From TrEMBL:
Its EC number is 1.1.1.179. Residues 9-104 form the Gfo/Idh/MocA-like oxidoreductase N-terminal domain. It comes from Gonium pectorale (Green alga). PANTHER family: OXIDOREDUCTASES, TRANS-1,2-DIHYDROBENZENE-1,2-DIOL DEHYDROGENASE. This is D-xylose 1-dehydrogenase (NADP(+), D-xylono-1,5-lactone-forming). It catalyses: D-xylose + NADP(+) = D-xylono-1,5-lactone + NADPH + H(+). Residues 158-274 form the GFO/IDH/MocA-like oxidoreductase domain. Belongs to the Gfo/Idh/MocA family. Keywords: Oxidoreductase. It comes from the Eukaryota.
Length: 399
């Protein structure tokens, strides 16, 4: 967040907090940040802070997003938004009640590469819809001739024709995090589906639209764990008539055997196919390979690389967040009823996106035979309760 803030004129990092005040102070000194705090509460009490970035472990996202909203701060919260759907609903309800932006930090979605994919596939919302306050999306990037990207459902698939399959994979090599990382801790809402699978589900939803359901999921447990997934595979389906022919599959892994992290999207239709590489970090190299077939059976393959202005996904994300916050602040200051209603509706739409992704993550864990994740406070209480009960059960059996 520090580096992008130096590229976005309207954003400035003014404070940082850590549980260890000396670490926060050293970080502030290293990055030229004016204030540092030894507690999160102290930072939230700072009147110079307008918005907060929550980059804590998964199980703490909801707790501190709520605290920031209660303190009157706008929130950019790391993905996954919360530990589960119930917590996501609670946080977003509070955000709307307070009239504050509370955005899930899917940084990839603001990059021109994602907009290009949506345009090629004529995804719902690809043409000119405002996805949230402050930003009206540009016209489709290179929309295929002969398609109508504004027709949300009838045109879905674009030059690929009627879609039949989409597959998304986010694979992180095991050397990146090792085995003792916080991403494998039950009390921190860890798991491959949470950290990598959330990207899979969100990108599928962003490109296909609708309201998918989890059809199946299979987890491979992390070493020395009975509850945390090191990798997760799953399949989704749609029940609405515009998408019922589409099968979605995903693979998320934090323990992949490969050498480099990969993030790929593959889409098939009755008139062609699309492959996209590195959709999460496109600034480091990407391509979109589009193969189309004519009725005569002739095929054409084109490869496109999308970099936009050359900025990182984090720059685009922070720029979007700043615009959203400014739009909400201006609507509140204007007193204009229409502007306030528009801002409120946009905030509700933004919140619904995060809630929907957490709904699917809960379904994934349930389908895999694992429990949906818990916020850290509840997970710790559960572990303590189980630890207390275990000796009593043993004593009962012995007597």
């Amino acid at each position: 967040m520090v580096w992008p803030s130096r590229r976005v004129a309207q954003a400035e990092v003014v404070a940082v907090a850590a549980r260890d005040g000396s670490r926060a102070k050293e970080y502030a000194k290293q990055h030229g940040i004016a204030s540092s705090y030894g507690s999160y509460e102290a930072l939230l009490a700072d009147p110079d802070v307008d918005a907060v970035y929550v980059g804590l472990p998964n199980g703490l996202h909801g707790q501190w997003a709520r605290a920031a909203l209660e303190a009157g701060k706008h929130v950019l919260c790391e993905k996954p938004f919360t530990a589960n759907e119930e917590e996501a609903r609670e946080v977003q309800a509070l955000a709307r009640k307070r009239g504050l932006v509370c955005r899930e930090a899917f940084h990839y979605r603001e990059h021109p590469l994602m907009e290009h994919l949506q345009s090629v596939l004529c995804s719902p919302g690809a043409a000119g819809k405002a996805a949230a306050p402050g930003l009206a999306r540009r016209a489709p990037v290179g929309a295929p001739a002969g398609t109508n990207a504004g027709d949300d459902q009838a045109a879905l698939g674009g030059v690929l024709g009627r879609l039949s399959a989409i597959d998304v994979a986010v694979l992180i090599p095991k050397w990146v995090f090792g085995g003792a990382n916080i991403r494998f801790q039950e009390t921190l809402a860890g798991g491959a589906a949470m950290d990598a699978g959330c990207y899979c589900l969100h990108s599928i939803r962003s490109l296909i639209g609708g309201k998918p359901q989890v059809e199946s999921a299979t987890a491979t447990l992390a070493p020395n764990s009975q509850v945390v997934d090191g990798s997760m595979r799953g399949a989704l389906r749609w029940d609405d008539p515009h998408r019922s022919s589409i099968r979605a599959t995903f693979t998320a892994s934090l323990q992949h055997d490969g050498l480099f992290p990969t993030s790929t999207i593959s889409v098939r239709g009755d008139k062609g196919s699309l492959q996209c590489s590195n959709f999460i970090m496109p600034v480091f190299g990407n391509f979109v390979r589009l193969t189309t077939r004519t009725e005569a059976g002739d095929t054409t393959t084109t490869t496109t690389r999308v970099y936009g202005s050359g900025e990182s996904t984090y720059y685009y994300q922070l720029s979007r967040f700043v615009r959203d916050v400014q739009a909400v602040q201006e609507a509140a200051a204007s007193g204009d009823a229409g502007a306030l209603v528009a801002a409120s509706n946009a905030l509700a739409e933004e919140g619904a996106d995060s809630i929907e992704n957490m709904r699917l993550l809960d379904q994934v864990y349930t389908a895999a035979g694992l429990a949906p994740r818990l916020p850290s406070a509840l997970a710790i209480m559960r572990q303590l309760s189980l630890a207390k009960a275990q000796p009593q059960e043993t004593a009962t059996r012995l007597t």
